[in-house]
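Fold in tokens:
===
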Amino acid sequence: MSDYFEIDFLDVETAKSGDAIALRYTIGGEVFIHVVDGGFKHTGQKVAEHIRLYYNNPSFIDNVVVTHNDGDHSCGLRTILEEFDVGALWMLRPWVYAEQLINRFASYSNVDNLTRRLRVAYSNLAALEDIAQRRGIPIFEPFQGTQIGAFTVMAPSRALFFDMVVASDKTPEPVKEAAFDSLGGFMVEVAQKVVALVKMAWGDERFSTEETAAENEMSVVQYANLCGKKILLTGDTGRKGLQ
């Protein structure tokens, strides 16, 4: 159990979207810094300045987590990776799994070609990979069940992530078949209709019954209990991820 934590949700200067979250917590007297997303590219410097000003001017960040490829979440982290020493970068890179996915794409039979195509499609993540490799920052995959410091990854599962890569508008045309996803063996179409019927009210904000984009469903969802407070960081995940 942690004996102290602070969590800061930083303004990404847009009314509709984007995340830039910085956390600092202590366990047994040891301090950890955990960054989740960095907003747009121009937001990154603001995140770096905030960490230096309020977290005792550290040079090292323990964990940096990229929830998904969208530029309002990932691009600002370029500054963080360039300006700090980072213990671990956590992100899911679709091209890493090209060999496992290639049979699900009708127009590809060469793994290297699919890898290149996916790197272009997810160029924000590719840019972070390039920086991390140049700076010697290790990259790890945050699938469901992974522990990142005090946080446990709740979603996505490997199966759901693969399904969303195939379903994404960014990726090549998938093989036409009655695909099954990770929701206990139900057909994708049936599962989507069932989930869409559920209505949730969180305070005065109603959770949309519409499906969200496949890229959003790839979001890394993290949970921690810090000082008795339950924290769930959801990225842009939708109903599949939350389920």
